C-alpha cells in the first residue's frame, strides 16, 4: 500500500489552489497552515459508506484530510436514500464505493481516496488498519463493532465511534493509549435478537447526520491535536428531546482487550462471540415454513388458515395481509387469543420475527403453525406487485 | 428518583421514557422498576437475578460498577440511566 505510507506533516506542502480552498481553515489559529498540513498528512479509514459513513466521508474529504480509506461491499438501494446522503436516486443499484468515490472526488479532487471492496473481517482488519492513523466506525452490527475495537486496540489506532438507533445515538473515542475501549464499556454483546437493528427498528433519517458529523469532528480534533476529544466520555444524543448527555467512561483494568492482562491477543471469530451462527441467516431454518405461493393458493381455495401478523401496528398500516395482529413482543401475554387447534401461518416483514413467533408458539404447544418464508416482502415480490415494500 | 429508559427498552415500559421510583439504593430502584414493568426483568437481569453484562447502569454520570454497584446509595434528586449497547450505523 505505497499510497498510504506515513508522511510527516512538515514535509507536506499545499499548492496555491489548496491554500485558496482551505482559506477559512488557514486563517483560524486552531488550524492554520500547520493544522492543514496535519490534515493533509492524515490517513483516516471509514468502515462503511452508509448512514454514518456518508457525512463522515463527505466532511473529512471537504476538510482536506489527505488520505481517506473506505471499506464497504454493499450496493445502494432505495431504502438507503432517506439518510445515506452521499448516494442519490441515480446511484440505486451501484456499488456504494463507486457512488461515494464520485461524490468525494467531486468535492475534493486533491483527495487520495482508497476504496476497499470487502467485508471487514478478522483476516483483513489488522493489515488494513496498519495503513491508517485513525479508524472511524460506521458499521451496523455487534460482531463488526467488537472486531473494529479489538483491531484498533491491537494496532494502537484510535476508534472514533458512533452508533444510532431510532432517534438516539452514542459517540465516543475509544482505544487511545490512556483511554478506555469499547469493551471497557460493553464487555459482552447482547444476545442476538434482543437489540433490534436499524432495519428492524427504524432510524430517523437525520440521526446518522448528527452522529456522523460528531464523529468527523472528533477525527479532525484528533488530527489537529486540539480541543477536548471524547476520550473517556460517552456522548448520548436524543434527537426527539434534543438533549445531549455525557457519561463518564473508565478504562477497566480487567478489560480483556486493553486491560493489564489482556486475553484478546489476536482477532477472534466475532460472529461466534456475538452468538451468531452463520451470516444473518433468518433464524431457525428447521421451522415449518410455508411459501407465499402456497399461502395464496390455500387462501383462494378457502382453506381454514389463521394468518397471524407479528409486526408492529405502524407496520400494519403500511401494508398487510388482513392478518390478526399481535406484535412479537406482546405474544407471550396474548397467546390465549390464539386457537391452537387451528392451522396458523405467522408472518412479519421478512420472516425473522415470525420465525421467533413460530418457535415460541411451538414451545407453547401449538402443533399446526408455519412461518411464512420471506414475509410480506416475498408476498409483494411474488404475489401482489402493487403491495408497497418497506 | 428518576430512572431513564432507553428507546430499545421502552416497548417493555409501556412506552414510558422515564419512571419515578422511591428507593435508597440503585438495586432497590431497579427492583422497583421491574416490579412496575415486569416485562423489563428479562432484559435487565439474568435468570439467576444478576444484572446483565451488556446493560450499563449509571447513577447520574457515573457507572455504578465503579461505585458500590447495586448497593450504591441514591438520593431523590439522582437520576439512574440504563444504557444498553446499540450498534446501528448504516
Ligand atoms: Zn478496554
Low-confidence stretches of chain B: none
Number of helices of chain B: 2
| Strand proportion of chain A | 15-25%
Largest sheet of chain B: 5 strands, mixed
Query: In CATH terms, what is the fold-level topology of chain B?
Result: Ubiquitin-like (UB roll)
Could you name the ranges of chain A where pLDDT drops below 50 across 5 or more consecutive residues?
Answer: 278-284
Structure description:
The complex is a heterodimer of chains A (390) and B (90). Chain A is α/β, with parallel strands linked by helices and 390 residues long. Chain A folds into 2 domains: 265 residues, NAD(P)-binding Rossmann-like Domain (Rossmann fold); 94 residues, Oxidized Rhodanese, domain 1, CATH 3.40.250.10. Chain A contains 16 helices and 13 strands. In chain A, strand 10, helix 13 and strand 11 form a beta-alpha-beta unit. In chain A, helix 4 packs parallel to helix 5 and helix 4 packs parallel to helix 10. The two termini of chain A are 41 Å apart. About 2% of the residues of chain A have low confidence. With 90 residues, chain B is of the alpha+beta class. Chain B has one domain: Ubiquitin-like (UB roll). Chain B has a 5-stranded mixed sheet, with helices on one face. Zinc ion binds next to helix 8 of chain A.
Features:
heterodimer, A: 390 residues, alpha/beta, Rossmann fold, Oxidized Rhodanese, domain 1, 13 strands, 34% helix, 16% strand, B: 90 residues, alpha+beta, Ubiquitin-like (UB roll), binds zinc ion
Write the layout of secondary structure elements.
The complex is a heterodimer of chains A (390) and B (90).
Chain A: H1 16-21, H2 23-26, H3 32-41, E1 43-47, H4 53-63, E2 67-71, H5 96-107, E3 112-116, H6 125-130, E4 134-137, H7 142-155, E5 159-165, E6 168-174, H8 182-185, H9 198-201, H10 207-224, E7 233-238, E8 243-248, H11 270-273, E9 289-290, H12 292-300, E10 305-309, H13 313-318, E11 324-325, H14 331-334, E12 343-347, H15 352-363, E13 369-372, H16 375-382
Helix pairs in contact in A: 4-5, 4-10
Chain B: E1 2-4, E2 18-20, H1 26-36, H2 41-44, E3 55-59, E4 62-63, E5 79-84
Amino acid at each position: 500500500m505505497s499510497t498510504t505510507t506515513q508522511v510527516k506533516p512538515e514535509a507536506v506542502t499545499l499548492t496555491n489552489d489548496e491554500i485558496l480552498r482551505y482559506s477559512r481553515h488557514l486563517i483560524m489559529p486552531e488550524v492554520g497552515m500547520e493544522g492543514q498540513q496535519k490534515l493533509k498528512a492524515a490517513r483516516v479509514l471509514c468502515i462503511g459508506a452508509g448512514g454514518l459513513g456518508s457525512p463522515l466521508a463527505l466532511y473529512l474529504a471537504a476538510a482536506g484530510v489527505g488520505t481517506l480509506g473506505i471499506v464497504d461491499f454493499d450496493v445502494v438501494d432505495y431504502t438507503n436514500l432517506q439518510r445515506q446522503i452521499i448516494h442519490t436516486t441515480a446511484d440505486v443499484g451501484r456499488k456504494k464505493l463507486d457512488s461515494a468515490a464520485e461524490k468525494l472526488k467531486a468535492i475534493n479532487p486533491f483527495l487520495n481516496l482508497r476504496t476497499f471492496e470487502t467485508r471487514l473481517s478478522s483476516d483483513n482488519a489488522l493489515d488494513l488498519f496498519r495503513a491508517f492513523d485513525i479508524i472511524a466506525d460506521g458499521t451496523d452490527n455487534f460482531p463488526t463493532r467488537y472486531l473494529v475495537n479489538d483491531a484498533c486496540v491491537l494496532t494502537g489506532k484510535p476508534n472514533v465511534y458512533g452508533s444510532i438507533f431510532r432517534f438516539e445515538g452514542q459517540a465516543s473515542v475509544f482505544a487511545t493509549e490512556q483511554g478506555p475501549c469499547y469493551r471497557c464499556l460493553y464487555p459482552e454483546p447482547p444476545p442476538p435478537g434482543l437489540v433490534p437493528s436499524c432495519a428492524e427498528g427504524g432510524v430517523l433519517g437525520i440521526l446518522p447526520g448528527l452522529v456522523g458529523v460528531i464523529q468527523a469532528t472528533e477525527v479532525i480534533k484528533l488530527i489537529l491535536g486540539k480541543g477536548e476529544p471524547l476520550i473517556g466520555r460517552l456522548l448520548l444524543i436524543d434527537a426527539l428531546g434534543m438533549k445531549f448527555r455525557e457519561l463518564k467512561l473508565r478504562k477497566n483494568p480487567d478489560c480483556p482487550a486493553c486491560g493489564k492482562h489482556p486475553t484478546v491477543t489476536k482477532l477472534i471469530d466475532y460472529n461466534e462471540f456475538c452468538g451468531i451462527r452463520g451470516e444473518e441467516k433468518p433464524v431457525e431454518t428447521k421451522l415449518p415454513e410455508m411459501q407465499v405461493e402456497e399461502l395464496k393458493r390455500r387462501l383462494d381455495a378457502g382453506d381454514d388458515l389463521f394468518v397471524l401478523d407479528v409486526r408492529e401496528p405502524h407496520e400494519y398500516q403500511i401494508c398487510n395481509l388482513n392478518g390478526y395482529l399481535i406484535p412479537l413482543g406482546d405474544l407471550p401475554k396474548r397467546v390465549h387469543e390464539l386457537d391452537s387447534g387451528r392451522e396458523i401461518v405467522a408472518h412479519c416483514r421478512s420472516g425473522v420475527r415470525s420465525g421467533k413467533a413460530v418457535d415460541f408458539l411451538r414451545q407453547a404447544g401449538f402443533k399446526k403453525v408455519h412461518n411464512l418464508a420471506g414475509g410480506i416482502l416475498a408476498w409483494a415480490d411474488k404475489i401482489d406487485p402493487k403491495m408497497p415494500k418497506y | 428518583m428518576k430512572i431513564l429508559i432507553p428507546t430499545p427498552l421502552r416497548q417493555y415500559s409501556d412506552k414510558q421514557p422515564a419512571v419515578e421510583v422511591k428507593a435508597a439504593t440503585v438495586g432497590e430502584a431497579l427492583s422497583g422498576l421491574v416490579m412496575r414493568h415486569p416485562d423489563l426483568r428479562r432484559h435487565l437481569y439474568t435468570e439467576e437475578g444478576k444484572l446483565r453484562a451488556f446493560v450499563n447502569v449509571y447513577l447520574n454520570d457515573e457507572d455504578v460498577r465503579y461505585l458500590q454497584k447495586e448497593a450504591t446509595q441514591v438520593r431523590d434528586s439522582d437520576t439512574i440511566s440504563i444504557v444498553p449497547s446499540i450498534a446501528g450505523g448504516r
